[in-house]
Design a protein that fits this description.
The protein is mostly helical. The protein has helices at 7-18, 21-33, 40-48. The model has no long low-confidence stretch (mean pLDDT 88).
């Protein structure tokens, strides 16, 4: 049984095979924007200060 692969996926795969240097650029970009060290204590403090939302935002009777 063949697994479906979109035209976009095929294009990207072929393009990356022709331009292997872009994989390193992709890793650099990911490290810049996404792969950040997490501060567990700061996140715990933020979670403690959250105010729970009302059940129905537009209900003025509460």
């Amino acid at each position: 049984m063949a697994i479906y692969e979109s035209e976009h996926t095929k294009f990207i795969r072929e393009w990356l095979e022709k331009h292997p240097q872009e994989l390193e650029e992709q890793r650099k970009g990911r490290a810049l924007w996404w792969d950040k060290p997490q501060d567990v204590e700061a996140q715990a403090r933020l979670d403690e200060t959250k105010v729970p939302p009302k059940g129905y935002y537009y209900d003025t009777n509460h």
